Structure to design on (720 residues):
């Protein structure tokens, strides 16, 4: 179980908050805030696979249907109460969530091969249109009760329409009469308490029959509802009361009808909110370029180009650069001791490894290179930041010792521990010695971990212990700037005085401070700094040489291509030259024959010389064709030899398998019964055994029957 302290130390809750913002449902948001690491590797892999499948939907022709829905938790509680009546809005929500669930069920069933884990999730639900049909029978697409929801409601609403029509017509008749008698004021009519009234001049008050509903401020106008209109209005109010009662009855009936579906509706909310969280994780992965790395069979963390996700999102928003890290832990490099200057990125590197591990075990894709490998850890323990406990009256060091006691108790081969500024808080020599002992115990228990420190004895221990490796955050001592790059294999200098100089501390004070430090310590720190600088210079030189070699290879390749083209052209020219020379030679011979014929007029000699020349040329062609056929024959023989060489082992293997199969005892033939579906061993038609007569079985093939010896029959399907 990973503690809440670890989640807080590594700022996991901020990742959850960023995922929360991508959720489209309130239940999904609640689940996103409550994300926690899985307790088994299998569960973590399933969660990661779900997000990876949703991420892959962008490559499908048809996207995953929408999954949003309104929260129906309050409505479901009321639905569970016997005798309760839900309002129209509740049923509209039920219908919408049922349609959404059905769409997803159909989609994932159709594309189950592309989304095996998401399909498995929706198989907890079953497809039904009953909820949708029941709601549609009562409520229209605008969320209003249908006129035909019941016969009684249909009749009542027709009466309401008639009553409203009578109110309008009776009012118009009264107004026309009063207007003809000049009883009305200039405004003619007005609304009083949402009722149409005639604006009657006060002097004609007694001339107009009806109910007085008000007066103007001056008293010159009296607002009267005509008597006929008042009668029809009372009828309308009675019909409206009847309508309200009928709607209440219909909604109660619909509530009772859908009450058995309460469990299914609850399952809808759970599965759809789970899909909402998966969708939000997918959107978050797009922000941080998150992927699903491979899980290693052996215990190992191999993170290539790993980014701290919170820092990456923040820097991207500001347009700042974020530096990736390569972090490698395995059985040969079980613990990394990171040293180097403050503000050089030690703590961020440590937190990056821890937060990415938490995210991965919570089913969240992480921003790393695709060649990264990870493992599952049962426990991740942290000691990061200023751990001073005011409420428990503990100092920083006392609190850290209490933490170490917990580490020593829980630490094992399936633990990842992360400790920032290991051993600080007390006397450096004594605290360093105790920290060294703790580190020995963690190592002996097989735990994996990363610590940051400035203590020389821990750096020395890492140098001398196989399985514990020094690492440093690289620093440009010339420009006094951190490089934010983790380098394993060597300890790092703290660059204490260099950083102080950069931050404006007077050189005279720095010089006085140097005199107070042991010369050996200064030389040791200076040597480390020099080694780091030399390593960096060597790395830069190596990179430059690699670039030059790469450029040379490219130039050589270009020259080789030019040379090959030139060689091809020369060969083509040579062939063209030889062909032309041959044609010139033939032309000269034909010209000689022509000149001799011109002088002698000897046709016989001309024909003889021509035929002789043709035969010589055909002889040459025949020789070339023989050489070409011989070459093709040799190539064919060589190809057959290669094929035979490859196929011989396969034949030998099949021969051995056949011999093994032949040695196996034959499988016992199944006993045949009446009703069994059978066929002849060398046939395709399937028939049914009707009965047995003596030593023969009577087989019915539908159009005909035949008698066959049972040992010639093969069982296709046994009778029920």
């Amino acid at each position: 179980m990973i503690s809440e302290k670890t989640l807080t130390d590594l700022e996991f809750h901020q990742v959850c908050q960023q995922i929360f913002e991508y959720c489209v449902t309130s239940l999904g948001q609640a689940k996103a805030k409550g994300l926690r690491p899985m307790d088994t590797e299998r569960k973590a892999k399933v969660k990661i696979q779900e997000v990876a499948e949703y991420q892959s939907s962008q490559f499908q022709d048809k996207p995953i249907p929408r999954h949003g829905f309104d929260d129906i938790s309050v409505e479901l509680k009321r639905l569970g109460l016997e005798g309760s009546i839900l309002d129209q809005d509740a049923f509209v929500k039920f219908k919408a969530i049922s349609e959404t669930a059905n769409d997803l069920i159909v989609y994932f069933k159709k594309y189950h091969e592309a989304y095996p884990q998401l399909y498995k999730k929706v198989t907890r639900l079953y497809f039904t249109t009953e909820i949708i049909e029941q709601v549609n029978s009562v409520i229209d697409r605008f969320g209003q009760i249908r006129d035909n929801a019941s016969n009684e409601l249909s009749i009542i609403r027709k009466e309401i329409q008639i009553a409203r029509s009578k109110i309008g017509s009776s009012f118009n008749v009264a107004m026309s009469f009063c207007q003809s008698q000049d009883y009305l004021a200039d405004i003619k009519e007005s609304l009083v308490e949402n009722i149409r009234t005639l604006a009657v001049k006060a002097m004609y008050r007694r001339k107009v029959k009806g109910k007085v509903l008000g007066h103007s401020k001056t008293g010159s106008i009296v607002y009267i509802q005509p008597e006929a209109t008042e009668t029809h209005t009372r009828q309308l109010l009675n019909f409206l009361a009847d309508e309200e009662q009928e709607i209440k009855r219909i909604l109660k009936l619909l509530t009772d009808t859908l009450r058995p579906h309460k469990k299914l509706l609850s399952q809808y909310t759970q599965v759809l909110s789970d899909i909402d969280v998966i969708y939000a994780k997918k959107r978050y992965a797009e922000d941080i370029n998150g992927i699903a790395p491979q899980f290693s069979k052996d215990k190992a963390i191999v993170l290539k180009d790993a980014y701290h996700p919170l820092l990456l999102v923040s820097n991207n928003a500001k347009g700042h650069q974020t530096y990736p890290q390569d972090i490698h832990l395995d059985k040969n490099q079980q613990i990394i001791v990171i040293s180097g200057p403050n503000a050089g990125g030690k703590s961020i590197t440590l937190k990056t490894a821890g937060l990415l591990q938490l995210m991965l075990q919570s089913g969240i894709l992480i921003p790393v290179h695709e060649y990264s490998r990870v493992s599952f850890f049962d426990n991740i323990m942290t000691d990061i930041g200023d751990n001073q406990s005011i409420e428990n009256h503990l100092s920083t060091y006392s609190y850290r010792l209490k933490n170490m006691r917990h580490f020593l108790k829980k630490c094992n081969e399936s633990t990842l521990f992360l400790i920032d500024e290991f051993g600080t808080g007390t006397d450096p020599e004594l605290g360093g010695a105790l920290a060294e002992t703790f580190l020995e115990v963690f190592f002996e228990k097989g735990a994996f971990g990363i610590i940051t420190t400035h203590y020389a004895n821990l750096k020395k221990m890492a140098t001398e212990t196989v399985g514990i490796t020094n690492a440093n955050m690289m620093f440009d001592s010339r420009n006094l700037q951190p490089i934010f790059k983790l380098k394993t294999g060597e300890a790092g200098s703290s660059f204490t005085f260099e950083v102080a100089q950069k931050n404006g501390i007077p050189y005279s004070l720095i010089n006085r401070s140097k005199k107070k430090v042991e010369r050996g310590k200064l030389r040791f720190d200076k040597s480390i700094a020099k080694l780091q600088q030399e390593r960096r210079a060597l790395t830069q030189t190596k990179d430059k040489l690699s670039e030059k070699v790469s450029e040379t290879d490219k130039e050589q390749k270009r020259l080789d291509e030019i040379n090959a083209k030139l060689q091809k052209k020369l060969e083509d020219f040579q062939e063209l030259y030889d062909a032309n020379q041959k044609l010139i030679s033939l032309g000269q011979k034909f010209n000689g024959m022509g000149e001799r014929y011109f002088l002698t007029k000897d046709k016989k000699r001309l024909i003889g010389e021509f035929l002789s020349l043709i035969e010589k040329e055909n002889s040459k062609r025949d020789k070339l064709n023989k050489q070409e056929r011989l070459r093709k024959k040799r190539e064919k023989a060589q190809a057959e030899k290669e094929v035979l060489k490859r196929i011989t082992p396969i034949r030998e293997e099949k021969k051995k398998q056949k011999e093994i199969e032949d040695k196996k005892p034959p499988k016992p033939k199944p006993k045949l019964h009446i009703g069994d579906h059978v066929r002849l061993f060398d046939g395709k038609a399937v028939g049914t055994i009707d009965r047995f007569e003596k030593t023969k079985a009577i087989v019915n093939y539908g159009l005909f029957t035949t008698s066959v010896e049972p040992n010639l029959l093969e069982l296709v399907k046994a009778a029920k």
Observations:
- Residues 519-600 form the longest helix (82 residues).
- The longest strand covers residues 184-192.
